[in-house]
Amino acid sequence: MTVLERLENWRTSGAITSTQYSAIAAIARKERLSVFVELHALLYLGVVSCIAGLGWTIGMYFANLGDAAILGSLTLLCGASLYYCFSRALPYSSNRVEAPSMVFDYVLYLGALAFAVALGYVEFRFELLKESWDHYLLLSAALYFFLAYRFDNRFVLSLGLSTFAGWFGLSFSRFGLLKPGAYRVPAMVYAVVVVAMGAALYGARIKPHFLRTHLHLAANVLFIALVSGVADLENLLYLLGLLVLSGAAIYGGFHFREFTFAAYGTIYGYIGVSIEVLRGSRDARSALAYLVVSGLIVIGFIAWLAVKAGRKK
Fold it and tell me: How many other CB atoms are there within 10 angstroms of residue 261's CB atom?
């Protein structure tokens, strides 16, 4: 049975509507080719490449360009991006709001990155805050959060959460709460704070769909902190914490049909267990056999998760 015949059977049985049939059948007959993902990937890479190139140019030629030219250009880029977004944005809503155009989210992201480069250059050249330069991170995070919630932009939300993470770690170091460079404890506290922020906003029904972004970032930060603890310290508490969190992620992923979190729990849990199992191992054959067998099991489980996720969709 061909794809078109299956589609016809599904339409006849009521599994899909006539509109869905027309759209899918056109793709099956190769009358349409969706490049939606590719276009968005190119736009994202274009924005990142533009900012990276701008940063490299400033770093190499700031003495020749001059402060006025650099700050003026960055201010113009940031201002033009924000003007474009504020002038074309739909009214604010606490629920999901579609972008008015394909490039809208990326223009906003460009403006946010330009703001970050401008702040970095100001401190690099004039050292206004000196040892307190981490306050730039807090200011940037506050702006990114405002822009993300105003324009319903997950790119900028992720940027704000990442910037907040930088400020969070530096603040812990400043107040002597840990030795410089040891970010494991603040990383775990940060993950809890991010989850609490997301849960509070979700409870207030303010952009409730942003909760997933908070959870994804917090889960990765917490898992990485625990895995680093297993790798660097011979402390079984980190391994126990990792196993508990992995089990919770796998259970929650199945219970709430969010299979990405089940994959997180599987991958990070496997890494932590493997580090502990192979710690001090001198038998290369046994280690290789363990990695091959266990790796195949994990790959099979993740493939099964992918199938489950596909069925969900």
Answer: 21
